[in-house]
Recover the amino acids of this structure.
């Protein structure tokens, strides 16, 4: 699937122009969703019938592309920043972490699943709130 960068640029410009936080564009089998936090593209015509979700580079209000390593949720569930309410968070913005360190817990079916970092780095952005529902493959943290 070839992605037209002009459409993404145009949609991200509309976010600023109309003071929006999210915008979705659909054309035949392609769906592009642009928000101040991320871009995702779905193509519904793949042979397996599964949706392709490409959480692309982050785009800010100036349409500059942010670089970093995205760590995604391995499962669907509820994300928690700490092992229990009131406890110290696993990670904070600016904290240096190593591959394998627990960065978050995702609860699914009453089971607490520790999410390990897939790379070394410094936490640049935490993309989900504590207690927020997350989907498989959703970016939860960005490292630099």
């Amino acid at each position: 699937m070839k992605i037209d960068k002009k459409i993404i640029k145009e949609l991200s410009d509309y976010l600023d122009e109309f003071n929006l936080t999210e915008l979705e564009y659909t054309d035949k089998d392609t769906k592009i969703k642009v928000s101040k936090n991320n871009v995702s593209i779905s193509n519904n015509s793949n042979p397996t019938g599964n949706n392709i979700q490409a959480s692309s580079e982050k785009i800010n209000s100036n349409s500059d592309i942010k670089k970093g390593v995205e760590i995604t949720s391995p499962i669907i569930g509820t994300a928690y920043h700490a092992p229990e309410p009131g406890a110290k968070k696993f990670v904070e913005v600016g904290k240096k972490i190593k591959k394998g360190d627990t960065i978050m817990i995702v609860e699914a079916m009453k089971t607490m699943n520790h999410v390990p970092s897939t790379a070394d780095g410094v936490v640049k952005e935490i993309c989900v709130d504590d207690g927020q529902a997350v989907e498989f493959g959703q970016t939860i943290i960005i490292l630099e």
Remarks:
- The two ends are 28 Å apart (CA to CA).
- The chain has two domains: 5-66, 69-143.
- The longest strand covers residues 102-108.
- The first helix runs from residue 5 to 17.
